[in-house]
Amino acid sequence: MSDAPNKALLPDGLRDALPHDAAHEAAIIERLLHVVSTHGYERVDPPLVEFEDSLLEGAGKGLALATFRLMDPVSQRMMGVRADITPQVARIAATRLSKAPRPLRLAYAGPVLRVRGDQLRPERQFHEVGVELIGTDRAEADSEVIALAAEALIAIGAPDVSVDINLPTLTPTVCEALGLDESTSDAARVALDRKDAAALRELGGKASKILGGLLDAAGPAECALSALKSVDLPLQARDDCCRLEEVVQRVGAAVPELVITIDPVENRGFEYHTGLSFTLFAKSARGSLGRGGRYLAGSAGEPATGFTLFLDSIARAIPTAKAGRKVYLPFGTAVEVGRALRAENWKTVTGLEPDSEPVGEAERLECSHLLVDGRPVALFQDND
Fold it and tell me: What stretches of 108-204 show up as alpha helix (H) in DSSP?
């Protein structure tokens, strides 16, 4: 029995993207970035690694436990490998683009690495594609990014896209307005996260009634908004719900085919968000396709909102594009012939040594066509 290590074995949560999958993912990234660019979002490309203190500032604070760290041998300062690109874009906006006109629309795409995966996303390295809209706190901005995320997913073929909209700041606002102490507020948050109606009833009094009403106000947007109106909310919480209704109406008008649901008390995964947030789903897709929401960008706390799409989930949710036309050029084919075919959007595979069975060689190399008498001939009937 050999003790030699299996060199194909990778750490948990990491994988090699082989040609077919890599091409599929690259095509998705290109199409997503094209869609957001048509809405005026300009791409930035921050580094994979940067100094820890800037990487974990502001919106990045909640990612400390997910971040790989290493010592920079040049500066002798601690660096972090990004676990999310949003904090980096916020840093760019606050520093290099601090004088740029607001609102600032930025887009990005790139890999991230996390210390651990979770049950829904065991991958520790995956690509993110997203946008950030920085410098405005208006409801129109919230509506724009939700509608844009949905439009982008629909454009690349994600089936039956839906969005679940949340107000992660609503529970703290209500607890504060009701004068609940810290331990009671924490218990209320835990109960809401677990959807534990019995635990909420144990709070008693007005808190039980209001928080129980918020828990029940989850579901399709129209029903949820109606339920929220029947809850006796504090003034600030009512304002948040009015904004939610405005955003739902705007998004529904912009993307009529989008299914919108509301869970006003969902907080998990939105720890650094400061307002309306959301999660995107598609039919039969494992886990979410992306999420986003309102936060404060940079050390100055500039109002911002945006979304991040998870490429691994998206790639599983949409059909793989049909392989393009690929023609085998037998050994000795003139260079000019291949050049002319590529100008016509053919992919060419050139034989590197004489072969007696060019048809078999073309099939072995997974080509759809064979060059015969100067023109591509389909190897299979459905490749005509």
Answer: 139-155, 170-177, 182-193, 197-201
Quote the CA–CA distance of 222 and 164 in Å, as a whole number: 13
Domain identity same for 50 and 138? yes
Query: Which residues, at least 6 apart from 171, have a Cβ–Cβ distance to it below 8 Å?
Result: 188, 189, 192, 211, 214, 265, 267
The parent domain of residue 41 ranges over 11-158+297-321
Is 333 contained in some domain?
yes
Question: One digit per residue, pLDDT tens: the chain, 384 residues?
Answer: 556 678 888 988 889 999 989 999 999 999 999 999 999 999 999 999 999 999 988 778 888 899 999 999 999 999 999 999 999 999 999 999 999 999 999 999 999 999 998 777 788 999 999 999 999 999 999 999 999 999 999 999 999 999 999 999 998 899 899 888 888 888 888 888 888 888 888 888 888 899 999 999 999 999 999 999 999 998 889 999 999 999 999 999 999 999 999 999 887 766 678 899 999 999 888 889 999 999 999 888 899 999 999 999 999 998 887 778 999 999 999 999 999 999 999 999 999 999 899 999 999 999 999 999 999 999 987 655
271 within domain boundaries: no
Measuring CA to CA, which residue among 102, 2, 61, 119 is closest to residue 305?
102
72 touches 45 (CB < 8 A) = no
- Whether residue 291 lies inside any domain: the answer is no
Q: Is 193 helix (H, G, I), strand (E, B) or coil?
A: helix
Indicate whether 281 belongs to any domain.
Answer: no
